[in-house]
């Protein structure tokens, strides 16, 4: 693992271990190594599938490039989920998060079981269907990012609920969240970005046994500082991450600051 910046042994913020790397590529490689080792450890302890929730965003590109190269993982014993999906985009749209994950990861490693969100039925039926899949067994690993507005999955500040009674719900997207999708190059203009989406809720994400957050880039600096040092509040939903008992956050100098 490459040398971290501050400090070399890792930095604790409440219960969160924060690792800062000089380069985004170093961050991605380190995160992939840690996630890969967690998968191998779990597979060494049990024959049960390792159940993983994956984020879909450009911020995760380096993680998935690294995971594809990780050795010793039995992907046939991985049960893969993703954490959010737009409502209203055609099934073949490249911006759909399921399609992103298929291209970047799933088609390259072939998990034994892939559960895509937003593919069947009405919105209410789909929320119930996916929640039932999540409830089949505990989630072992969650790989997630933090949005420019502090969201995790599509739990934007106006709709995030730390005590949400649901595992999956439909939400209206905050304008800051939709603007990020344009900034990331996923859509040409704000008018092209869907206004609603399905998302795993905050409790669904926090229920994962091991959380790995990957947060690179200058655009994430304000959100990351709020998540690490601001109040525990839905004004920055990611702030709750630092209370999780088994979370490591990987970031780079651009996001963390000097």
Automatic annotation (TrEMBL):
<keyword id="KW-0119">Carbohydrate metabolism</keyword>
<dbReference type="InterPro" id="IPR004547">
    <property type="entry name" value="Glucosamine6P_isomerase"/>
</dbReference>
<dbReference type="InterPro" id="IPR037171">
    <property type="entry name" value="NagB/RpiA_transferase-like"/>
</dbReference>
<dbReference type="Pfam" id="PF01182">
    <property type="entry name" value="Glucosamine_iso"/>
</dbReference>
<protein>
    <submittedName>
        <fullName>Glucosamine-6-phosphate deaminase</fullName>
    </submittedName>
</protein>
<dbReference type="InterPro" id="IPR006148">
    <property type="entry name" value="Glc/Gal-6P_isomerase"/>
</dbReference>
<feature type="domain" description="Glucosamine/galactosamine-6-phosphate isomerase">
    <location>
        <begin position="24"/>
        <end position="153"/>
    </location>
</feature>
